[in-house]
Amino acid sequence: MIEKKKDHLQKRIAENLKKAKANVVSNRAVAIKALRNNQQIEEEMEQLNGVRLQLEQNINMLESADLETMQVMRKRSDVLERVRGVLDQVDAVVASLTSQRELAREISETVSPLFDETELREMLAELEQAELDERLAAGEAPKPVEDDEEAQLRELQAALGM
User: Fold this and answer.
1) How many CB atoms are located within 10 Å of the residue 121 CB?
2) Which domain holds residue 41?
3) What is the pTM of this model?
4) How confident is the model over 20-72, as pLDDT tens digits?
5) Contacts (Cβ under 8 Å, ≥6 apart) of 16
6) Looking at the 3D structure of the chain, how many domains does it have?
């Protein structure tokens, strides 16, 4: 479109020059008017050339922006692939931890009945009773049995000088 307008303006300049040459001697006013029109047309052509130059620069900027956009998109894709790989590794670690936690729970459930606290206390009471029975049979006076807390309290009192 710019080229068509430029061609049209050049034809008008050529017509005005022809008109000015034809009227230079016979009608000076018409010749001057034709030359003024040429000046206006030349200014319009300069503006048109400026617009064309600006459009070419914009096209170049858009093309380079497209290249930059493609490069940014390619880098983004690479980063997303790396993140996806890291997430896969995290998923594997989480699955491993979950498996280990489940295994620990199963072991705890299996072992806990073996060490039931109530059974241990009953066994301890039976052992204490057997010890007392043996001492009574041997003729010894039974010693009072201290539980752990009383012994610890006495040790603390001794350490503090009470």
Assistant:
1) 10
2) 2-138
3) 0.40
4) 999 988 998 999 999 999 999 999 999 999 999 999 999 888 888 877 888 88
5) 34, 35, 37, 38, 41
6) 1
Tokens 């606290």: give the residue: 117
Quick one: which of 6, 5, 8, 33 has its CA closest to 19? Answer: 33
Q: Has residue 157 been placed in a domain?
A: no
Residue 114 lies in a domain: yes
Measured CA to CA, the distance from residue 52 to residue 66 in angstroms comes to: 21
Residue type, 124: L
Distance between CA atoms of residues 126 and 118, nearest Å: 12
Largest CA distance in the chain: 163
Residue 146 in any domain: the answer is: no
CB-based contacts of 41, cutoff 8 Å, min separation 6:
9, 12, 13, 16
Half-sphere CA count of 36, side-chain side, radius 13 A: 6
Distance CA 80, CA 27 (A): 79
Say how far apart CA 148 and CA 131 lie, in whole Å: 18
Q: What share of the chain is helix, strand, coil (3-state, %, to 5)?
A: 90, 0, 10
